[in-house]
Write a structure and sequence with these properties.
With 244 residues, the chain is an alpha/beta fold. The protein folds into two domains: 148 residues, Rossmann fold, CATH 3.40.50.300; 77 residues, Helicase, Ruva Protein, domain 3 (Orthogonal Bundle), CATH 1.10.8.710. The strands form three sheets. The protein has a three-stranded parallel sheet, with helices on both faces. It has a two-stranded parallel ribbon with strand order 1-7. The structure holds adenosine-5'-triphosphate (ATP) and magnesium ion. Magnesium ion (MG) binds next to helix 2. One of its GO terms (molecular function) is dynein light intermediate chain binding. This is Dynein heavy chain hydrolytic ATP-binding dynein motor region domain-containing protein. One of its GO terms (biological process) is microtubule-based movement.
Length: 244
C-alpha cells in the first residue's frame, strides 16, 4: 500500500455504520452498491471513507449525459483490472441507451468475479481481473433530467436509501476534533439554529442549510479557536457564524 498520511475522516454515525454494513455485504455478494437519497447527505463521502478504511483506491466519476458507452467500458476495464473502486456520482444522469450497455458491461465483470477466473473478456478486450474491485453508483432520485434505471441494472446493485444525516452527532464530534471543550452544548445550539433557519426563513435557492455549509462554518470556527485558545467558545462560534 501507498501511505497517504493521516487524512480527514468522517464522523461515524449510525447512518454511516449502516451504509458500511450494507455496502460490504453487497460486495460480499459480488454486487455493486447504489446509495440513493437527497443532496448533501453523505453518499459520496461515505463511499470514499469506506474505501480508505479498506485501503482501496476510490475514483469518483461525475456522470453526465455526455458520457458514452465506450468511455464507461474503459472505466469498467480499468476498475476490474486494477481492483480499485469506482464511485459514479449522479449515475442516473446517463442517458438510457448508455445505462443499458453499462448493465451488460458490469454484468460481465460480476459474472467473471463469481466464476473466479483470472482473465475475462469485456467488449473486445481480454483483461486481467482483480476480484476486489467495486462499483458504487450514487443517485438523487426524482430530479429533473434524470433517467429511471433499467431493471437489468437494478438487479446488479444493492440499493441503500440514505436519509437525513445525524447532524448533531456530526457537529459535536467535529467541534470536539477542532478543540472545543463545550462541544456537546454548542452542537445542540448550533443544529437548533440551523433547523430553525431552515424552517422559518423563506425557501430560496441561495440559502444552503445543508451539512456541507455547516461543516465549512465549523472548520472556520476551529481556525479561530486555535488562533485565540483563551477566548470564550460561544463567542468564537458566533463570530464564525457571522463572518462566514
Ligand atoms: N458522517 C459524516 N461525518 C462528517 N461529515 C459528513 C458525514 N456525512 C457527510 N458529511 C459531509 O457532508 C457533505 C456532503 O456529503 P456528500 O458530498 O457525500 O453528499 P452527497 O450525498 O454525495 O450529495 P450529492 O447528492 O450532492 O452528491 C460533505 O462535506 C461531507 O464531508
Ligand atoms: Mg455526491
Amino acid at each position: 500500500y501507498e501511505y497517504l498520511g493521516n487524512g480527514p475522516r468522517l464522523v461515524v454515525t449510525p447512518l454511516t455504520d449502516r451504509i458500511y454494513v450494507t455496502a460490504t455485504q453487497a460486495l460480499h455478494l459480488k454486487m455493486g452498491c447504489a446509495p440513493a437519497g437527497p443532496a448533501g447527505t453523505g453518499k459520496t463521502e461515505t463511499t470514499k471513507d469506506l474505501s480508505s478504511a479498506m485501503g482501496k483506491a476510490c475514483y469518483v466519476f461525475n456522470c453526465s449525459d455526455q458520457m458514452d458507452y465506450k468511455g464507461m467500458g474503459g472505466i469498467f476495464k480499468g476498475l476490474a483490472s486494477s481492483g480499485s473502486w469506482g464511485c459514479f456520482d449522479e449515475f442516473n444522469r446517463l442517458v438510457p441507451e448508455v445505462l443499458s450497455v453499462c448493465s451488460v458491461q458490469f454484468k460481465s465483470v460480476t459474472d467473471a468475479i463469481r466464476e473466479g477466473v483470472q482473465r475475462f473478456r469485456l467488449q473486445e478486450d481480454e483483461i486481467s481481473l482483480d476480484p476486489t474491485c467495486g462499483v458504487f453508483i450514487t443517485m438523487n432520485p426524482g430530479y429533473l433530467g434524470r433517467s429511471e434505471l433499467p431493471e437489468g441494472l437494478k438487479a446488479l446493485f444493492r440499493p441503500i436509501t440514505v436519509v437525513v444525516p445525524d447532524l448533531e452527532l456530526i457537529c459535536e464530534n467535529m467541534l470536539m476534533a477542532e478543540g472545543f471543550t463545550g462541544a456537546k452544548l454548542l452542537a445542540k445550539k448550533f443544529t437548533t439554529l440551523y433547523a430553525l433557519c431552515k424552517d422559518l426563513l423563506s425557501k430560496q435557492m441561495h440559502y444552503d442549510w445543508g451539512l456541507r455549509a455547516i461543516k465549512s462554518v465549523l472548520v472556520v470556527a476551529g481556525g479561530f479557536k486555535r488562533g485565540e485558545p483563551d477566548l470564550d467558545e460561544r463567542a468564537i462560534l458566533m463570530r464564525a457564524l457571522r463572518d462566514f
